[in-house]
């Protein structure tokens, strides 16, 4: 498929004054999704998010039309998300896809936690993340597209099943499953959960701070503390490990921002449970990547490199278990 040519044919439907697409270029080469940046000849800047027909679809990945519906649903609550311009129909020739407005900012976590350009906004990012999560969690559930509901116990059970299927024998993971099993909090009131809210899926502007929450393919209904804990997983700190929230802030700032914006009360203990579960989940994902590489199912160097990071998750889990007793 010639995506630039197809976008040009679609251009008049994307903006009333447009006749063609310009400068279309692919930004990412993920296993399941493509992201294209392009412009229109009336000056509009847009992004295409597309799943090619041959792409592998993750077990929990939402249809892109559902993603687009969620972006539209959370915007009125105050969450910074791109504006949905068009959800593609079969006749548009792009397959499963949607078009959204382009936001300007940085998404590379390493730059966000280290570059001098972001020094002015870093001190306020953790609190702002709490505020934005409160807005997402406040999204009315009626009117949302159908979403799965998941709690701590079911997440733990699902990832242990994946771990067992791999045939892995990792003592730290074995201990973590049992340790978390005895501490899993009940789900009191489900809310909309982003599911992958972390440094790397946030667009940060050096002057304006957090301007966009991206990649909604894992959204579901669940515990608000799941999102708060996930952004604190050490792997999303990009080496700035003393700052537990995304490598740029502290726990209390995150919790204070969430509470000040009207979020349901979340204790540090509950957040730390979900951080530990997040570390375990990421460790299992790393093992999955390793086995995919080792068995020859996917020989990409990316799979091998990520697979090696299972040991990092083990270190994080040991520290968290020792800290909590």
Can you describe what's shown?
The protein is α+β, with helices and mostly antiparallel strands and 325 residues long. The chain folds into two domains: 3-101, Phosphorylase Kinase, domain 1; 109-324, Aminoglycoside phosphotransferase (APH), C-terminal lobe (Aminoglycoside 3'-phosphotransferase, Chain: A, domain 2, Alpha-Beta Complex), CATH 3.90.1200. The protein is 42% helix and 15% strand. The protein has eleven helices and nine strands. It has a five-stranded antiparallel β-sheet. Helix 4 crosses helix 8 (251-260), helix 5 (152-166) packs parallel to helix 9 and helix 6 crosses helix 11.
List the helices and strands and how they pair.
Layout: H1 3-14, E1 21-29, E2 34-40, E3 45-51, H2 64-74, E4 84-87, E5 96-101, H3 109-114, H4 122-137, H5 152-166, H6 171-181, E6 191-193, E7 202-205, E8 209-213, E9 220-222, H7 224-230, H8 251-260, H9 268-294, H10 301-307, H11 310-324
Antiparallel strand pairs: 1-2, 2-3, 3-5, 4-5, 6-9, 7-8
């Amino acid at each position: 498929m010639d995506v630039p040519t197809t976008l040009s044919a679609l251009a008049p439907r994307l903006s009333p004054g447009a006749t063609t697409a310009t400068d279309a270029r692919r930004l990412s080469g993920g296993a399941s999704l493509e992201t294209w940046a392009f412009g229109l000849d009336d000056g509009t800047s847009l992004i295409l998010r597309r799943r090619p027909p041959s792409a592998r679809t993750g077990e929990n990945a939402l249809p892109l039309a559902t993603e687009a519906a969620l972006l539209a649903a959370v915007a009125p609550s105050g969450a910074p998300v791109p504006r949905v311009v068009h959800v593609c129909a079969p006749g548009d020739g792009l397959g499963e896809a949607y078009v959204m407005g382009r936001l300007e900012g940085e998404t590379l976590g390493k730059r966000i936690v280290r570059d001098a350009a972001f020094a002015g906004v870093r001190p306020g990012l953790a609190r702002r993340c709490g505020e934005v999560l409160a807005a997402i969690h406040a999204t009315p559930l009626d009117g949302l597209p159908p979403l799965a509901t998941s709690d701590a116990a079911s997440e733990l059970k699902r990832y242990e099943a994946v771990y067992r299927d791999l045939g892995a024998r990792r003592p730290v993971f074995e201990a973590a499953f049992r340790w978390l099993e005895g501490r899993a909090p009940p789900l009191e009131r489900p809310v909309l959960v982003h599911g992958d809210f972390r440094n790397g899926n946030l667009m940060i502007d050096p002057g304006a701070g957090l301007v966009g929450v991206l990649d909604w393919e894992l959204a579901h209904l669940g515990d608000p503390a799941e999102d708060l804990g996930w952004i604190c997983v050490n792997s999303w700190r990009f080496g700035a490990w003393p700052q537990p929230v995304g490598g740029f802030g502290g726990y209390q700032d995150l919790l204070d921002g969430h509470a000040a914006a009207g979020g349901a009360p979340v204790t540090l203990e509950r957040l730390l449970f979900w951080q530990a579960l997040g570390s375990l989940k990421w460790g299992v994902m790393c093992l999955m990547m390793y086995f995919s590489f080792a068995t020859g199912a996917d020989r990409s160097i990316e799979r091998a490199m990520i697979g090696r990071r299972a040991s990092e998750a083990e270190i994080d889990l040991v520290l968290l278990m020792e800290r909590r007793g």
